[in-house]
Amino acid sequence: MKPSPPPPRSRRDRRFVPSESRPVTESRRASRAAIESLERRELFTTFPAGFAEAQVATGFVSPTAMTVAPDGRVFVAEQGGELRVIRDGNLVSSPFLTVPTEAIQERGFGGVVLDPNFAANGYVYVYYTALTPDVHNRVSRFTADPANPDRALPDSEVILFEIDGANAAGYHQGGAMHFGADGKLYVAVGEHGGNTRAQSLEFLFGKMLRLNPDGSIPTDNPFYNEASGKYRAIWAIGLRNPFTFAFQPGTGLMYINDVGQNTWEEINQGAPGANYGWPVAEGPSTDPALTAPVHAVAHPESRAITGGVFYNPAVQQFPASYTGTYFFGDLDRRWIRRFNPATQQATDFADSVRGEPVDLDLAPDGSLYYLARPIDSLRPGGVYRVNYSSTGGPAIGIHPQSRTVAAGQPVTFTVEASGAEPLTYQWQRNGANIPGATSATYTINAATAADNGAQFRVVVGNGAGTVTSNPATLTVATSAAPVATITAPAAGGLFAMGDTIAYAGTGSDPEDGVLPDSAFTWQVDYITGDVVRPLVPPTAGSRSGSVTLPTLTPYTRTDVRVRVSLTVTDSAGLSTTTTSELLPRTVNLSMASNVPGVRLGVDGQPVTAPLSFPGVVGFERLLGAPATQSVNGVTYNFAGWSDSGTPEHSINTPAADTTYTATYTAVDGGSGKATDPDLMAAVIQPLPAAAIIGAPGRTRVRITNAGTVPMAGAANIQLHLSSDPYLHPDDPMVVNVPKALRLAPGGSRTFAVPFAYPKGVTPGSYYLLAYADAGKAVAERNEANNVGASTTAATVADPFVDLSVAFTQMGVTVPPIRRGVATLLVRNAGNIPATGIVGITLAASTDATADGSDTTMLTTTRAMRIRPGGSRLIRLRFAPGALAAGTYYVAATIDTANAIAETDENNNTAVSGNTFIVG
Predict the structure, then answer these.
(1) Same domain, yes or no, for 603 and 569?
(2) Is the pTM of this model over 0.70?
(3) How many domains does the chain divide into?
(4) Fewer CB within 10 Å, N- or C-terminus of the chain?
(5) CATH of the domain at 437
(6) Closest CA to 843 of 833, 832, 856, 834
């Protein structure tokens, strides 16, 4: 039986140690001993019966994404800019490609996907942070070298799409990419730490984008007509940090993993035009204007949802009950679960995986791959394969690793195995059994010179058989370990966000003396609670350096610190690591107003004034104040902030306690008497996504008496179109309907109101606004709250017809030519029906164009009625007549007299793809 698992450990003890062959010196003996005494849950991945994992490749510094090629190769993106290839279980020595980027916070190489036709064209798409002309994310395409498919062709980069400049943002970059069943490239972009950008069509941040494979923008994207320029690429909005997503083969079902802030981690179902709510909502929501997640996991059970893949492989390896389920992982909690789309339930699958999982994929043989970032030498990260076997025989997932230690120091060898319980272990030294060494780990308390060069392996067994691990070699150095000292910064010092932290140190060794620059490796981490984020990944080759702390971070908490780590390694391979931690400077910030109870915004989240909260000096915070709001039945307009900022503006947390006051003035819009009624309007029927000027519409309006006394009388209900959810003096009115009202306090009535989108209005996106008492016929306590807006906007377009013609068939008899038959497909790409009598001509053309020299062979007319988006097939017989000998195309022209008014008359002619011969 496996022992009961302990509670999860804090990530502050999970620092990545770059060298596998590092001894435990006096300064690190206690922490290493603690790690090596962890129970099986913390060291070994646990799976359901029959599942086992095996390490495919390790040695990655900060992997971010992977994709599996049809031939089984695994492509792994390193944050620092390299795309590595794993072939036949071995990491290819040279990278496939290297992009110029910087691995700072979450910037860098963030995504990779292969073209659906990769086997033929060798196209590899990448998402990375470009550094010129400014810092921004980019989507590019590279081509594999046919002569060496593990390398990209030199200078093969084709830049497809440029994301907005990242400015100072270092987090929430996104980067996941996949091709949908429609052949389009979908790209996930994080909100870059800006809490309002995810809801705006003027930013690409916090969005799912949809592109053609060449980087152009599909014209059927949901916001194509509403947005402009590159923002037409937006496919869905309201995401925080969609780190990963996946499509289900066969169904096209799309699930998006969105990393949450303080409360929830989400799986959202992809849909065109969807709004996933950030920052308006996080986690489950009942707001009909938002798309709620299909599955949400609350903190702290989940902290950072990553990785996602549907189990629909071409080769079925797992049990049938797994087919169609969605695997997803959590980076911080180090688990993998599976979600059933049919039952909407999630179940455990893997716990305590060998690192921090960031991505999931399937191999051609139906096994599951996961990619994990390294934590320490016992959880080295890398790519791991999860297999299933019904026999339950033992399998070794992680073989013992060779170790180098100083004489007198302890050393532990570890194996990870799985299979039907109970498992047995027998360690061997140089092929001979070691008495009493019958657990998953074997420890030598004090290595000696006699242990140098010894090889250790383990035989793992159960009732179904045995398996022997690879041998691990122990190297015992007789020299002493080096000494590492951080001279700056001093431990316990204070920092503010935006500060530049300079670090420096010394390293010496009793045998080597003063160590060279190449012996130094620095790492700087920004730690929030128990979440570790690298500011400077392990970087070797310098005695000093510096890093500027970001002013924008994912979390605005005050339980943060900066940890500087220095590792020095001597010529014998012995290393020593030391650290220095800095603490934050904090102040108190207060939100106030001259009207108690108004709603304000902090970092995109609604708050009620007055409110005080702590902050770290230098943090960029976003303050917001609605233009108009009601408190206790009185409507107020925003007048200004005490720091003279705009209604929504950013501040850098100052070095002293500060209060930010929002001033509001009451609206003179009613009697203010408690003895008067108070009408309010709401549009409760969403508008259609698209509408046509002059076409009829219908909505439902609810009128409510929010006052404390009854209301009886006649009121005019008006509907207006507005470019935003507010009534403006020049907004066009679409209907004015008088209604007799009798409403008790708190009572309401709902009216079905027909209307027409008015002719003469400029095409665009419009909300529908209802005005409860136009003309103010009813004496009210507050006249300023009589307008309510629809929750959705409609794209209103001019009516138009657009006919086009194409050949679907053209045949003629063999010479001598006597007759021909042409089948034409006439389409209407407009938004209203095409109706009328149209003329049609067929002409003989000597080339594949239609010009005035063509010889007419047939003139006819047809009655047309084609619905929007519809088409009609027309079959015509023609006679070549007395044409001169030669080769001819057939040119077809419809609506020759322009009897039907169209938006585009230039696509009414088509030329056949094949020819006929005369003579």
Answers:
(1) no
(2) no
(3) 6
(4) N
(5) 2.60.40.10
(6) 856
